[in-house]
Design a protein that fits this description.
This protein is an alpha+beta fold and 379 residues long. The protein contains eleven helices and 15 strands. It has three domains: 102 residues, no CATH class; 96 residues, Dodecin subunit-like (2-Layer Sandwich); 144 residues, Rossmann fold (3-Layer(aba) Sandwich), CATH 3.40.50. The protein has a six-stranded mixed β-sheet with strand order 1-12-13-11-15-14. Strands 5, 6, 7, 8, 9 and 10 form a six-stranded mixed β-sheet that branches.
């Protein structure tokens, strides 16, 4: 259970006058997750009787493609067979705006790339009406270390590494969990070896993850064997995600070749399946729970208005936060009530993805920015 702090922040007389002006400007800060509802780079290529007709058909198709990509980004794979099927005209009512990033035309052909922004509340309500759970919290990048076991040896940076090749063939996604493959240069080789990765050396994993702006590392160990009965290749994968604020997560999957599937295709399919499971596990941990709500009172240390703006802007991008309200303001601290959805653990995880650290000291919750330096100021 979360206990509110009984401590009140004292304001000097000068600070009070200025605080009143600031409070009038900022009031309650609504939470927004606009980036999650943006779908970029929707490619269309349509030929019709006229270029006008081709453009209209292409834009209608782009609406449907963008809408499907958005829903798949938000929902679990198990629920995607139940996603609403809407006409392009219905989807248009859910679009806040769209723009044409690129286009080429001929007398009968239209080729374009379009960017969309969807109306968050309308899409939310649609999914709620269909009884489909969804998540909006984006994960920080996750670094993938593809360790391949061959003839008893562990390969990570070695060439060839067919398991790494399988990961490189996975199409770039636009889901909630960005996956990154390391370059495998000399700095990477010096940072960690295959045995250290498999052993889960936290210090070395943190070093190499940090090189790529990631907080978590996914160590995916794959072992290829031949089925003694069928003579067909089979793959066993143990994947462990660790680092950041989330607890260590490990899962094991087995993949058998299908039909005439060769080893290369099997490795690509397994890498794709593992990436989808990582995405699904993240969504499952961050599903929005509209039936569970809470309020957390936090103290935000500041040196000036710039510091508060930094925290305020980061809070505004967190999906589980319904809104925030400023209770008291001084030259050194802001007392803030955070109204949120779900559990306190979900809130803490979401805050960490926005580079905000939540800690409790003597029953007082303190919220501080991490990552890049904040912009201080003078009152």
């Amino acid at each position: 259970m979360i206990h509110r702090s009984a401590r009140r922040l004292r304001l000097g007389r000068v600070a009070v006058a200025r605080a009143l002006v600031v409070l009038a400007m900022i009031g309650a800060v609504p939470a927004m997750a606009a980036g999650v509802y943006e779908v970029e780079g929707v490619a269309v290529d349509v030929t019709s009787e006229t270029v006008t007709q081709a453009r209209d058909e292409a834009h209608a198709a782009a609406h449907e493609i963008a809408f499907r990509r958005l829903l798949e980004r938000l929902t679990l794979r198990a629920d995607q067979a139940r996603l609403p099927q809407l006409e392009s005209s219905e989807i248009a009512g859910l679009v806040q705006d769209f723009s044409v990033a690129q286009e080429k035309t001929s007398s009968t052909r239209y080729i374009g790339r379009l960017d969309f922004r969807f109306r968050r509340e309308d899409v939310r309500n649609l999914l709620i009406d269909f009884g489909i759970s969804f998540a909006e919290t984006g994960s920080k990048p996750v670094l993938v270390l593809a360790v391949y076991e061959s003839a008893g040896a562990l390969l990570l940076w070695d060439t060839p590494n067919p398991w790494r090749d399988g990961w490189e063939a996975v199409p770039a996604g636009d889901g909630l969990v960005p996956l990154i493959l390391p370059l495998g240069d000399l700095n990477d080789i010096a940072a960690i070896g295959a045995e250290q990765a498999v052993r889960g050396d936290a210090q070395r994993l943190a070093v190499i993850a940090g090189r790529y702006g990631a907080e978590d590392a996914l160590v995916a160990r794959a072992t290829l064997r031949l089925n003694p009965q069928t003579g067909r290749p089979e793959l066993s994968v143990s994947a462990t995600r660790q680092g950041g604020v989330a607890s260590e997560q490990t899962f094991v999957r087995s993949f058998a070749s299908v039909g005439e599937e060769d080893v290369e295709s099997l490795l690509r399919r397994a890498a794709l399946e593992i990436s989808v499971q990582v995405e699904d596990d993240w969504k499952r941990d961050n599903l929005l729970q509209f039936g569970q709500q809470g309020v957390l009172s936090v103290s935000v240390p500041i040196t000036g208005l710039g510091d508060w703006r930094t925290v305020r802007d980061r809070l505004a991008g967190i999906a589980v936060i319904r809104y925030t309200e400023v209770v008291l303001l001084s030259q050194t601290r802001v007392l803030l009530n955070i109204h949120y959805l779900g559990s306190p653990e979900q809130l803490g995880l979401a805050l960490a993805q926005a580079d905000l650290a939540l800690a409790q000291d003597d029953e007082v919750w303190t919220l501080r920015p991490t990552g890049e330096a904040t912009a201080g100021g003078v009152w």
